[in-house]
Design goal:
By secondary structure, the protein is an alpha+beta fold. Among the domains are: 86 residues, OB fold (Dihydrolipoamide Acetyltransferase, E2P); 215 residues, Chloramphenicol Acetyltransferase (2-Layer Sandwich). It contains nine helices and 27 strands. The strands form seven sheets. Strands 17, 20, 23, 24, 25, 26 and 27 form a seven-stranded mixed β-sheet that branches. A hairpin with a 2-residue loop joins strand 21 and strand 22. Helix 6 crosses helix 7 and helix 6 packs across helix 8. The termini are far apart. Its EC number is 2.3.1.61.
Length: 501
C-alpha cells in the first residue's frame, strides 16, 4: 500500500511554502514520524514527518519548489515494499550523462547540503577512476555558498565512474559517481565519463594541489612551502591552509592577480592569471551589491576613548580567565554597548518587510569573521541575555568554526545587527556595508594613540574611530547619531552598562 505525504496546515493566512530541504531520498527506509523534509514560509519553518513506516518511493516536489497547502510532496510504500524503478533526474548542470551500471553498482550521491541549499560546486576529487576505496574514505569535497561538504565512499570497492569533474555544479541528492563493490574489482576497460582533474597529474611526480587550497593560499597570503599537505601524495587541501593560518603561519604579502581588462596586450595576457571565483566569493559579491542597490545606505562616524575599557580589562583579565576559562577581549564590551544602544534606538535593530517595519525585541548579534576563503558572519543568538563570559565563549567557538569551515547554515542566519572589526587588520577608518535585511552595522577600527584636548590639557589617549552604516529608509540621522553616542558613552564609562544608563 502507498501512502501520500502532503503539505500540512501552515498557519493562519499562509497558503504556500517553499521546500527547503529533503532529509531522505527515494529508496530510503523511513520510520513513523521520522522527519522527511522541511518547508519554509514567510515567517516559520515547518517540519514534515512520515505518516507511516516504509520506503520513500518518490519525491514529487523537489527542493526549491513552491507548494500550496495539502499539495502532494512524496509517496511512501508501506512496510518493506520496494519502490518501482525510477529514472534519476539529471542535474541541470550535468556535463556527462551517466551510463547504465550493473545491478551491484553503488551510486555516490550528493549529501544533504543544508537549509535552503539546492546546489554545490565540486572543488576537489581525491580519487580517480580505477582507484580502490574503503568505506567512509573521502572521495571529494563540495563547496556551497557558505560551507564545505565532504563526500565519503558509501562502501568499499573500485571507483568506476566519475560523472562530474572539478568545477562542475551539482544538485542536492544528485549522482556524483559509481562504485563497483569489492576491493578487488577491476577498473572498467573503457570509459566515457570525463575524468576528474587529479587523473591528469604529470608523470614527473609534481603534486597538483586542490583548487580550493590554491585559492585559500592566495587569499591568506601564504606560500605552498608554508603549508603541510595531508592529501594523497602530500597534496595540499583547503583545511590544511586553514590550519596553517590558525597556527599563526607568517603570511607573506600575496602576489596580486591581474584583473581582467579589455583590451589586453599579448605580452600582458601571458603574465595574467584567471581564477574562477569560489561560490562563497560569488555570494559575498552578490549580497554586497544587492545591499547597495536596495538600501538607502548612509554612514555616520564618531570616536571613542578606550582608556577606561583597557584599564578595566587589564585589571580583571587574569581573574576573568581563571574563573570563566576564556580571555576577556574587547568584543564583549562592544556587544554589550551595542545591545544597550539598540534598546534605546530600536529601529537600528529592525528590518523592512514589504511596506512593514519589523521591530525585533531581541538581539541576534552577527560577528563578522575573516577566513581563508572569505568573509562569514556567524550569529550569536539572544545576545541580550548573555553575560560577558558567555559572549566571549560564543564568539570564540564561532570564530574557530569559521576558520575551520565548519559553520552550519543555521549558525549564520537570523542576525538582527552586525559588528565588523576591521581594526584587527590595521584599518583606521572604513564604511562597512550592510548585511541585508539588517538595517545597521557597526565598524570597529584600530586603537591608535592620539593627542586629545582633555580639560584644557593636551594628553595622549588610545582612540578608536567608530562607523555606523545604516538604512536611511527606516533609520533617521538623529537615531543613528544617538546610537553611536550611546555606544561611545557606554565604552568610555563601562559602569553605565551595569547601571543601565
Amino acid at each position: 500500500m502507498t501512502s501520500e505525504v502532503r503539505v500540512p496546515t501552515l498557519g493562519e493566512s499562509v497558503t504556500e511554502a517553499t521546500v527547503a530541504t529533503w532529509f531522505k531520498k527515494p529508496g530510503d527506509q523511513v520510520e513513523v514520524d521520522e522527519m522527511l523534509c522541511e518547508l519554509e514560509t514567510d515567517k516559520v519553518t515547518v517540519e514534515v514527518p512520515s505518516p507511516i513506516a516504509g520506503t520513500l518511493n518518490d519525491i514529487v516536489a523537489a527542493e526549491g519548489e513552491t507548494v500550496g497547502v495539502d499539495a502532494l510532496l512524496a509517496n511512501i510504500s508501506e512496510g518493506g515494499e520496494k519502490p518501482a524503478a525510477k529514472q534519476d533526474k539529471p542535474a541541470a548542470t550535468a556535463k556527462v550523462e551517466a551510463p547504465a551500471t550493473g545491478g551491484d553498482a553503488i551510486d555516490v550521491m550528493v549529501p544533504t547540503l543544508g537549509e535552503s541549499v539546492t546546489e554545490a560546486t565540486i572543488s576537489t576529487w581525491f580519487k580517480k577512476v580505477g582507484d580502490t576505496v574503503e568505506a567512509d574514505e573521502m572521495l571529494c569535497e563540495l563547496e556551497t555558498d557558505k560551507v564545505s561538504v565532504e563526500v565519503p565512499a558509501p562502501a568499499a570497492g573500485t571507483l568506476t565512474k566519475i560523472l562530474f569533474e572539478e568545477g562542475a555544479t551539482v544538485e542536492a541528492n544528485g549522482k556524483l559517481a559509481v562504485i563497483a563493490p569489492g576491493a578487488g574489482a577491476a577498473a572498467p576497460a573503457s570509459k566515457t565519463d570525463t575524468p576528474a582533474a587529479p587523473s591528469a597529474a604529470p608523470a614527473s611526480g609534481d603534486i597538483e594541489d586542490a583548487p580550493s587550497a590554491k585559492k585559500a593560499m592566495a587569499e591568506a597570503g601564504i606560500t605552498r612551502d608554508q603549508v603541510t599537505g595531508t592529501g594523497r601524495d602530500g597534496r595540499v587541501m583547503k583545511e590544511d591552509v586553514a590550519r596553517a593560518v590558525a597556527a599563526g603561519t607568517s603570511a607573506a604579502k600575496p602576489t596580486p592577480v591581474a584583473a581582467p581588462r579589455a583590451p589586453s596586450a599579448p605580452q600582458d595576457a601571458a603574465r595574467e592569471e584567471r581564477v574562477k571565483m569560489t561560490r562563497l566569493r560569488q555570494t559575498i559579491a552578490k549580497r554586497l551589491k544587492d545591499s547597495q542597490n536596495t538600501a538607502a545606505m548612509l554612514t555616520t562616524y564618531n570616536e571613542v576613548d578606550m582608556t577606561e575599557i583597557m584599564a578595566l580589562r587589564n585589571e580583571y583579565k587574569d581573574l576573568f580567565l581563571k574563573k570563566h576559562g576564556v580571555k576577556l577581549g574587547f568584543m564583549s564590551f562592544f556587544t554589550k554597548a551595542c545591545i544597550h544602544a539598540l534598546h534605546e534606538v530600536p529601529e537600528v535593530n529592525a528590518e523592512i518587510d514589504g511596506t512593514d517595519v519589523v521591530y525585533k525585541n531581541y538581539v541576534n548579534m552577527g560577528i563578522a569573521a575573516g577566513t581563508p576563503t572569505g568573509l562569514v558572519v556567524p550569529v550569536i543568538k539572544d545576545a541580550q541575555d548573555m553575560s560577558f563570559a558567555t559572549i566571549e565563549k560564543s564568539i570564540g567557538e564561532m570564530g574557530a568554526k569559521a576558520r575551520d569551515g565548519k559553520l552550519s547554515m543555521a549558525e549564520m542566519q537570523g542576525g538582527t545587527f552586525t559588528i565588523s572589526n576591521g581594526g584587527v587588520y590595521g584599518s583606521l577608518m572604513s564604511s562597512p556595508i550592510l548585511n541585508p535585511p539588517q538595517s545597521g552595522i557597526l565598524g570597529m577600527h584600530k586603537i591608535q594613540d592620539r593627542p586629545m584636548a582633555i580639560n584644557g590639557q593636551v594628553v595622549i589617549r588610545p582612540m578608536m574611530y567608530l562607523a555606523l552604516s545604516y538604512d536611511h529608509r527606516i533609520v533617521d540621522g538623529k537615531g543613528a547619531v544617538t546610537f553611536l553616542v550611546r555606544v561611545k558613552e557606554a565604552l568610555e564609562d563601562p559602569r553605565r552598562l551595569l547601571m543601565d544608563l
